Amino acid sequence: MPRRQRAAEAGTSRPLDIRSGDTVVVIAGSERGKRGVVQRTLSAEGRIVVEGVNIRKRHQRSGQQRGGTTALQGGIIDFPAPLAYSNVQLVCPKCDRPTRLGHRVEGERMVPFCKRCNEPYLRAPRA
Ligand SMILES: [Zn+2]
Fold first, then answer.
1. Residue 51 C-alpha to ligand 1 middle, in angstroms?
2. Span from the CA of 114 to the centroid of ligand 1 (angstroms)
3. Cβ distance 64 to 91 under 8 Å?
4. CA atoms within a 13 Å half-sphere pointing along the CA-CB vector of 19
5. Cα-to-centroid distance, 89 and ligand 1 (Å)
6. Cα–Cα distance, 26 to 32 (Å, whole number)
7. Cα–ligand 1 centroid distance for 123 (angstroms)
8. The pTM is what?
9. Ligand 1 centre distance from Cα of residue 121 (Å)
10. What does the pLDDT look like over 78-122, one tens digit per residue?
């Protein structure tokens, strides 16, 4: 039997279990060990933007539009560059450790839970 292809290789997108607003820790690369709150996820690219992590400088002219934001001022702007999704791990707010989420059915809902402490991983409803 051939080994099952990984989702990424098969070209199917796996839903990311990290969303904006979650706290993550960087587990690989030059920014390893840093923590931050996820600003946004680029699930199609498998990348993730974390506040205060992977800061790059962008040289920008005023009025230039990029990444959905229009620069009002020119100059050098610090911004967090996207990281590979595989380089970060979700931090559980309950046990405060990097973890992965499992999912289990509770009633009619699928509830994500921390695989370390087994507590449900609940997100604040989005504003
Ligand atoms: Zn936990």
1. 22
2. 5
3. no
4. 10
5. 12
6. 5
7. 13
8. 0.74
9. 8
10. 999 999 999 999 999 999 999 999 999 989 988 999 999 999 998
Q: How far is ligand 1, taken at its centre, from the CA of residue 95, in Å?
A: 4
Task: Tell me how far the alpha carbon of residue 101 lies from the centroid of ligand 1, in angstroms.
Answer: 9
In 10 A of CB 14, how many CB atoms? 12
Model pLDDT for residues 53-83, shown as the tens digit of each residue: 999 998 877 776 766 666 667 788 899 999 9
Q: Which domains does the chain have, with CATH numbers?
A: 7-91 (2.30.30.30), 95-127 (no CATH)
The rounded Å distance from CA 93 to ligand 1 centre is 7
- Which structure tokens are listed for 60? 């920008």
Q: What are 123's two structure tokens?
A: 């997100």
